[in-house]
Write a structure and sequence with these properties.
The chain has helices spanning 6-17, 19-33, 45-63, 72-84, 88-112, 117-166, 172-182, 208-214, 243-248, 267-278, 295-302, 304-315, 323-338, 343-350, 354-368, 375-390; strands at residues 187-196, 218-223, 227-234, 255-257, 261-263, 288-290. With 395 residues, it is an alpha+beta fold. A hairpin with a 3-residue loop joins strand 2 (218-223) and strand 3 (227-234). Residues 329-386 form the PucR C-terminal helix-turn-helix domain.
Length: 395
């Protein structure tokens, strides 16, 4: 900023001649007044001192310059502090402490040189305008750099998670390095979550990572257009029993859970099992399916084509009935299984008499050629029933 007072020019020239001593004094004051800088970590003493010197020289020259402010030093400071991981509020505080010391030094020189106080008062507005300009520039550079670093880290994490799920992390060292970056152990108790996205590219489990972290569960996630998948490191195995309820409260689509496994290298297989567990839920149902809860349904999801052929063979003519008639018989058979083979209880569930249930079950037996008193036939009918509940079988 320009000034018409030659006294200020002389003060600035004098301070520039003492720039090294001034940088030492400012650095010491910052370390004394700002806790972040006292230990030299994350900002080393040498880095602080060089930054102070560069900024002080630029600012002092700007005091007597007629050109627009040169913001290269505050931009460099902001970028470096973001890269070092120093918190922005502490960096801003240090910046203001440095400006305050520079002003104190200018005032001391003015008093020693008998510069009129009115000159300093007039000049103060120029100084504090520059304080705002340089501090804002430093903060903008910090935020830009921090955002870039965050994006780069997120991209790196996403690539590592993808590598973890696809099994390309072959060596133990590579797996260990990836685990360190993702914040996961290599051995312990892991579970894979496979969540179907309710809409294209929209997360099924919004905000799940911080929620899990609050419960002591570390996790790493990957979002694709169709699914949101994550590997969870459970602090103790029994926590897995509460996991379905925790996820169910946030489920907006189908979610499958793998069985627990002890080593991170087994993640690709666990992902396949989690996807199979997801497939045991009917389309459109927002719920959580642990792999261990429905072994027959998992087999159906693993081989849907073969499962459909089994259902067609077992149910036969039942599938050729009109949709409404077919639904009545399938629902009755489903209720009978759910009620442990009790026609009376199934009737209560279906709001009809037990004799009506028995009549419908006889129709199932006639159409399928399988009697409900034959254990083998019951097993086949139960399997076929699960198939028609999960897959779009003809009829």
């Amino acid at each position: 900023m320009p000034t018409d007072n030659s006294g200020i020019d002389a003060l600035v020239t004098a301070l520039l001649g003492e720039l090294d001593d001034l940088a030492d004094a400012v650095s010491e004051r910052i370390r004394r007044e700002v806790v972040l800088y006292q230990a030299g970590d994350p900002v080393p003493a040498g880095s602080l001192r060089q930054s102070v010197r560069d900024n002080a020289e630029l600012i002092l020259r700007q005091f007597v310059s007629e050109h627009a402010p040169d913001l290269s030093a505050p931009w460099a400071t902001g970028r470096e502090r973001a890269q070092q991981g120093a918190p922005l509020p502490e960096v801003v505080r240090a910046y203001r402490v440095g400006f305050a010391h520079l002003w104190d030094a200018l005032v001391a020189k003015a008093r020693a040189s008998e510069v009129d106080d009115r000159v300093l008062v007039d000049f103060a507005a120029t100084v504090w305008r520059l304080v705002g300009t340089y501090t804002d520039a430093m903060a903008d550079a910090y935020r830009d750099t921090a955002s870039q670093i965050m994006l780069e880290r997120e991209h790196e994490r996403s690539m590592l998670v993808e590598a973890l799920f696809t099994g390309v992390l072959g060596s133990q060292d590579t797996l260990w390095e990836a685990a360190q970056t993702l914040g996961l152990p290599v051995e312990g108790c892991f579970v894979v979550v496979a969540a179907e996205n309710p809409e294209l590219g929209k997360r099924s489990l919004v905000g799940i990572e911080p929620r899990l972290r609050a419960g002591g569960i570390r996790s790493a996630w990957r979002l694709s257009p169709e699914e949101h998948i994550g590997v969870l490191a459970l602090p103790y195995p029994s926590l897995g029993e509460r996991l379905p309820d925790l996820l169910r409260g946030r489920a907006t689509a189908r979610i499958g859970l793998s069985p627990a496994y002890p080593h991170l290298r087994e993640t690709p297989r666990a992902l396949r099992l989690a996807r199979l567990a997801l497939g045991t839920l009917p389309p459109g149902q927002a719920d959580v399916a642990p792999w261990d809860d429905a072994p027959v349904a998992v087999l159906i999801a693993a081989a849907p084509g073969e499962a459909e052929r089994v259902a067609t063979t077992v149910f036969g003519p039942l599938l050729d009935l009109p949709p409404a008639d077919r639904k009545v018989l399938v629902d009755t058979l489903d209720a009978w299984f759910a009620c442990g083979g009790s026609a009376a209880e199934a009737g209560k569930r279906l709001y009809c008499h037990a004799n009506t249930v028995r009549y419908r079950l006889r129709r199932v037996e006639e159409l399928t050629g399988r009697g409900l008193g034959d254990p083998k036939a019951v097993a086949e009918l139960a399997t076929a029933l699960q198939v028609v509940r999960l897959l779009p079988v003809r009829g």
